[in-house]
Amino acid sequence: MDFDSYTHSCAVCEATENLRLCTECQQCCYCSKDCLKKDHTNHQKYCASFKKFKTLADLFQNDERYKSILIQHSTMPIGQIELNGRRLVQFDFSRPSDLDNMINPDFLMAGGQVDVKIRCALLNEEEDKQSQWYIAMAYTKYYDLEKEAAVAFTLKVDDGFLVKPFVIPLKPE
Questions:
Q1: Alpha-carbon distance 9 to 13, whole Å?
Q2: 118: nearest Cα among 149, 145, 148, 83
Q3: Count of beta carbons in the 10 Å neighbourhood of residue 135
Q4: Which of 83, 112, 86 is nearest to 98 (CA)?
Q5: β-bridge mates for residue 163, sequence order
Q6: Are residues 33 and 61 in contact, defined by beta-carbon separation less than 8 angstroms?
Q7: Strands 87-93 and 116-122
Q8: Are 118 and 89 in contact (CB under 8 A)?
């Protein structure tokens, strides 16, 4: 079973055996149909957004127009810091409609504006333990700095943020 997630326990009871991923978003794990049913209402609020994060990651990997955006942000200097180490490019979406627009190449190529904050930062394990960056950093701990970029997509929701990190290839193998 391939877990494309930093969660390796049931979303309801925290069991770690016999886990199955949600077939739609491939993000949440459940140990049984009963746990899946118990979490259905809660999970439905987020499932579609996780699927959109995956769609956006695929666009950054496979569409040269998107890839150029990622390359630009993954190689630019951050302030006066010389970047020789790991860093994260984070795309912060404040509304679901901004995420929808970002995954629409026609909208972007027609000059549409997406309200997204793009932040780049060095990853510092000691300073980031209490942040969403720590989750992304843990997930993207090992990647080839020359060929890949660590990316996280965040979406503001009623009770906090959804965060999904990815490692995206920038150059062919």
A1: 8
A2: 149
A3: 16
A4: 112
A5: 154
A6: no
A7: antiparallel
A8: yes
Residue 13 is encoded by which pair of tokens? 């009871």
Which two structure tokens, joined as six digits, stand for 119? 């932040």
pTM score, whole prediction: 0.74
Residue at 77: amino acid letter: P
Reported residue count of the chain is: 173
Please, are residues 103 and 91 in contact by the beta-carbon 8 Å criterion?
no
How far apart, in Å, are the Cα atoms of 126 and each of 87, 133, 134, 145? 14, 11, 9, 21
How far is Cα 30 from Cα 8, in angstroms, rounded to an integer? Answer: 9
**Nearest Cα residue to 62 out of 103, 21, 2, 118:** 103
Q: What is the pLDDT of residues 83-116, one digit of tens each?
A: 445 667 778 888 888 899 889 988 877 777 776 6
Q: Can you give the pLDDT of all 173 residues of the chain as single tens digits?
A: 333 444 578 989 989 889 988 888 888 889 999 999 999 988 888 888 989 999 999 999 999 888 888 877 766 655 544 444 566 777 888 888 889 988 998 887 777 777 666 665 555 555 544 455 555 555 556 666 677 777 888 888 877 788 787 888 877 65
